[in-house]
């Protein structure tokens, strides 16, 4: 009877699920915590010699926004988020993971898919040496309640530390201090440009009546589908006629476009206009200010350092 009990306990230990410890000969990534992203896709990966741990997930899951303490960003694994482990015939490089189609060598010898569970992301700020300037964000990725599966085998983890992915803070030139404000005569565009960058406003013109405003009480409109604010960069120098032409020029080519996000009353995304009267000749000067405007491209965001960003002045005549 004693022999039977010992044999039963031994078999139970052999057939139980993994307790969460890393199987170092299979998933050996403890010394490499840095996660890298492919340039042209939503593939994130870690490499250890001939092994790779690969994550395919939308980049929007890593915004430059801190998560609340003890409240990670949670992403379900499956559908748009998939994870798998590969073992190759020899040392693997980025092009084997990021290129499509993949090179003929090295050859994939073994592949495990990760099923079920969630990916939890804790995002924190990274500061410059001065301790106050945010230069990047760290996204710590942890897998919870996941199963590594391959033919005839599976390993279950309550918690698996995937690694850390870093996103840098976006810095746009946004330098228009020496440029003049231009208004197209054939559309509602008002813009300022400098070399290859431009800040465009497409606004409801009722915000520019020939009437002065009380000091401290500007006219306001929210950024929305009618009132648009866009920042662009091009691959060559611009000129004043580029945006006013009835037929858009073919060059220079657009490189980046950042869209001003819809405003919230009394909070953000507000266009302010202060109007004063001019004499000799009679005219009205409208000073345009953008209040707490956030620009977005894909998942990335950019906000000018000043809450009240003075766009410039626009002159109208009676």
Mean pLDDT: 89
Reported for the largest beta sheet, the result is: 9 strands, antiparallel
The backbone outline, from C-alpha atoms, is elongated
Question: N- to C-terminal separation?
Answer: 107 Å
Question: What's the tally of helices?
Answer: 2
* Fraction in helix: under 10%
Report the count of strand segments.
20
SSE order: HEEEEEHEEEEEEEEEEEEEEE
Coarse structural class: mainly beta
Tell me the strand percentage band: 35-45%
Radius of gyration: 28 Å
Uncertain segments of ≥5 residues (pLDDT<50)?
1-25
Structure commentary:
The strands form three sheets. Strands 1, 2, 3, 4, 5, 6, 7, 8 and 9 form a nine-stranded antiparallel β-sheet that branches. A seven-stranded antiparallel β-sheet has the order 10-11-12-14-15-18-19, with no helix packed on it. The chain has helices spanning 2-15, 94-98, and strands at residues 36-37, 43-48, 51-56, 73-76, 82-88, 108-115, 118-127, 134-150, 153-168, 182-183, 189-194, 197-202, 219-222, 228-234, 254-260, 270-278, 283-291, 295-297, 300-302, 308-316. The relative contact order is 0.11. The model is unreliable at 1-25 (pLDDT under 50). With 318 residues, it is mainly beta.
């Amino acid at each position: 009877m004693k022999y039977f009990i010992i044999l039963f306990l031994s078999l139970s230990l052999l057939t139980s699920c993994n307790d969460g410890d890393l199987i170092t000969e299979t998933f050996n990534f403890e010394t490499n915590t840095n996660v890298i992203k492919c340039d042209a896709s939503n593939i994130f990966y870690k490499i250890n010699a001939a092994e790779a741990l690969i994550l395919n997930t939308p980049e929007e899951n890593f915004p430059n926004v801190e998560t609340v303490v003890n409240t990670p960003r949670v992403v379900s694994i499956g559908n748009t988020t998939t994870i798998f482990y590969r073992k190759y015939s020899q040392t693997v490089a980025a092009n084997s993971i990021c290129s499509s189609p993949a090179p003929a060598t090295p050859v994939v010898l073994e592949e495990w898919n990760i099923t079920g569970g969630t990916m939890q992301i804790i995002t924190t700020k990274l500061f410059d040496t001065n301790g106050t300037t945010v230069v990047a964000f760290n996204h710590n990725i942890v897998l919870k309640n996941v199963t590594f599966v391959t033919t005839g085998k599976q390993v279950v983890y309550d918690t698996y530390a995937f690694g850390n992915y870093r996103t840098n803070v976006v810095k746009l030139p946004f330098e228009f201090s020496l440029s003049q404000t231009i208004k197209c005569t054939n559309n509602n565009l008002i813009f300022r440009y400098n070399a290859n960058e431009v800040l465009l406003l497409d606004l409801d013109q009722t915000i520019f009546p020939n009437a002065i405003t009380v000091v401290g009480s500007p006219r306001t409109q929210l950024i929305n589908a009618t009132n648009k604010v866009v920042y662009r960069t091009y691959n060559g120098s611009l000129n004043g006629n580029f945006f006013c032409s009835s037929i858009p020029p073919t060059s220079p080519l657009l490189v980046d476009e950042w869209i001003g996000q819809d405003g919230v009353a009394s909070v953000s995304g507000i266009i302010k206009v202060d109007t004063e009267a001019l004499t000799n000749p009679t005219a009205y000067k409208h000073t345009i200010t953008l209040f707490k405007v956030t620009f977005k491209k894909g998942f990335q965001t950019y906000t000018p350092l000043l809450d009240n960003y003075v766009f410039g002045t626009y002159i109208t005549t009676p």
